[in-house]
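User: Can you help me understand a structure? I only have the sequence.
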Amino acid sequence: MKVKFLTEPGQPRLLLKVALLDDTIEFRYRFSIMKKQPIPRTMEHHDLLSGLIRLHVLHHAAEQEIYGQWMIDELAHHGYRLSPGTLYPMLHKMKRDGYLVSHQEREGRTVRKLYTITPKGREGLALAKDRIREFAGEAMHK
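Assistant: Let's start by predicting it. Here is the structure, written out as tokens:
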């Protein structure tokens, strides 16, 4: 099977050609051009808030095993809007850095990668909590 993605000059379209054996099937998709929306306040400060997101991840991974989509939903309850393309690389980096470990679990046809905090992650989370308490005490008195 061959798949080709082609855009036509000057057209807001995507042409998808799928070649099955000797037959070619074409699908055309039109993309609506949307007005540029204002950037949500949290996205404007993404770099600043990413450390808090990592702390949320460590906090929940210390309480129970977590997986990506659950974490995206949980963070949404706190006002963070993360895509899988943002969260999964963050989880992989936290694993590479030794803050999380993971294992795969199959549930029917679904395979989930479950993450748990490591001793290094617990140490980092405890240190971060101390620093946050110190900062909050200082910042809230002014």
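Now, to help you interpret it: Helices lie at 41-44, 46-63, 68-77, 84-96, 119-140. Residues 119-140 form the longest helix (22 residues). Let me know which part you'd like to focus on.
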